[in-house]
Amino acid sequence: MDEQPTSLPSTNEPVSYEETPVITPIPETPPPVRKPNKILGFFKGLLFFIILFVIGFVLSGYIRDYLSSIANKQASPSTPTTQQPTTAANESTNTGSLAFTTPEATPAAPTTYSVLNGLTRQPVADISFTLPGSVLPPICDGSACGSQGTYLPGGTRFTVAARGTGQVLADFRGKIISDAGGKPFTTSLTTIVGKPATEFTTFQTGSTIGGYAFSRMHGYMIEVIDTLSLEINHFSPSGITTDFAADELVFNSIVQSLTFGGIQKGSVTQ
Fold first, then answer.
1. What is the pLDDT averaged over residues 33-57?
2. pTM listed for this prediction
């Protein structure tokens, strides 16, 4: 039995097939970026700087020693040996050793000063005193120059003034000795270099006629002649730390150095 050929499907018929979908790749997420540790970076930089500094310091020491050794060799060349000349038996080549010493500073010598007339700025005749060489010369206290003063080594102020006829300041006799504000001092009678005197002291604050505020004072009013007296004192300026006890010794030596020349009680001073 003859088999009939199988008929092929018509090529005009549509052939169905499944379309492969397009696969879109999923982008990879990059790993998070780590932020640098600022503190750790600072310490790393600091450590690096320290290491460089130590290396540089060590190298500079070696270089300095090397250059110093070269300089010493150049500064000290070998001295050639020379033959000394022959001398006679009775001649001596020993010139001795020369010793050089630095002269010590000589303390300044004490200086004698005159008391000034505050009006004429001229020395009052035959009245003088001596200050240690370490004390500066006295200068006028104020424009009127009623007194002159300077500072003693312990910081107290030394003052001297002529009082009486023809002077800026009045004589003390017949009056209460006090500061510029009227605070009276403690007084007692004594003798200074053969002249009648009144010693005065105070431990209370006050002010002088020259405008100096003080916290302690010791001095004398000395009767030179009937129309002239001499005030001499030292005091601690207010607000300043002074060695009053040490300056008291200096002040006493100044008082003992007072000279009145040929002036006698009852005579007239210029």
1. 77
2. 0.59
